[in-house]
Amino acid sequence: MASKNYFLLLALLFLVTTSKAQTKKIQADKKESSITYQMTHPLHEIEATSKDVGCWVDLDPAKKEIYHVYVQIDVTTFDGGNSNRDSHAMEVIDAISYPKVKFTSTSIVQNGDKLKVTGKLTFHGVTKEINFDALPKWESNKLTVIGNFVISLTEFKIERPSLLMIPVKDELRFSFIEVFNL
Asked: Most buried one in 30, 49, 83, 164, CB count within 10 A?
């Protein structure tokens, strides 16, 4: 009986070790990855992109499953092509006091060919749960994930910037592309 229990324990240990061995933590390739925000004012669209996104996933390439994602961005890395407007954006979000935006997933569910992602977004010192869809594209040696989401500036305690006394819309739209070399 003891040898049977010993064999069962070894088999369970092998299964746990094998399943963990297939899970990898991979950082996105910064040369191919980016995140862009868009803000709307009645007179124009404002858009800025960061190519300096720290994004990591825990995944199993054999099963084509993503288990966890963590993202961190320095807000000063967003470039909108207009240094005055970019500087003003950093003032509005108080980049000195809140230099990082962070996202940590709490749930990733495969829903057909899309991922339903839920997690905690920390921006401007405020943490909120957000949900969004993402589309993974698995290739033999690469994973590309694209998606977008929208947040409310006022929910993150950011005063909406104004031009000619007209504030921007309350929504800040993000789109991202993250590329992982497998």
From this structure: 49
- Report the first-to-last Cα separation within the chain, whole angstroms: 44
**Whole-structure pTM value:** 0.85
Give the distance from CA 19 to its chain's centroid: 25
The alpha carbon dihedral of 121, 123, 127, 128 has a sign of negative
Q: Which residues contact 30 (CB under 8 A, 6 or more apart)?
A: 51, 52, 53
What is the rounded distance in angstroms from the CA atom of residue 73 to the CA atom of residue 53?
5
Q: Output the six-digit token pair for 159.
A: 């005063």
Q: Going from the N-terminus, what domains does the chain have, and what CATH number goes with each?
A: 23-181 (2.40.128.110)
Q: Is the dihedral of CA 96, 87, 152, 35 positive or negative?
A: negative
List, in sequence order, every beta strand (DSSP E) within the chain.
Answer: 24-27, 34-41, 44-50, 53-60, 65-74, 100-111, 114-123, 126-138, 142-152, 162-163, 166-167, 171-181
